[in-house]
């Protein structure tokens, strides 16, 4: 919008005020009595403009993420509810399965400890009836790529 700048002129203190006896009905349209920043009252042309119209709200489209979220919310809620119902029906079986798993863990731990102990006991019992076997090896080779010869002695 283009506004025309109006120069406001005032009278000095020696001059009388303009038209001191002018009636309000005699003032032409667009002219008003104004008070300037220095406190002097004078007649001035004022633009007659209508106040700007408030902006008309424009309907914004709904964002895609909001539509997707709104459509997925009942689906996710229904899935969570179905999972809760399924877990409530499966709870006795899950409890039995967890107890079976703990029993399997205990069996594995007992086997990891018990099997080496049993093997050690079995070897010491088998070796107690006869003497231990000693094997001696003598290996000789000549040169870096020479053929190796050896003997094994059992005692």
Question: What is the structure about, briefly put?
Answer:
Helix content is 42%, strand content 15%.
Task: Show unreliable segments.
Answer: none
SSE string: EEHEE
Oligomeric state of the chains? single chain
Q: Describe the biggest sheet?
A: 2 strands, antiparallel
- Give the integer mean of the pLDDT values: 80
The dominant shape is: elongated
Physical arrangement of strands within the biggest beta sheet: 1-2
SSE-based structural type: alpha+beta
Helix content: 40-55%
Number of distinct beta strands: 4
Strand coverage percent: 15-25%
Q: C-alpha Rg, in Å?
A: 55 Å
Question: What distance lies between the first and last C-alpha atoms, to the nearest angstrom?
Answer: 120 Å
Count of separate DSSP helical elements = 1
What does this 3D model show about the protein?
Helix content is 42%, strand content 15%. It has 155 residues and is an alpha+beta fold. The strands form two sheets. Strands 1-2 form a two-stranded antiparallel ribbon.
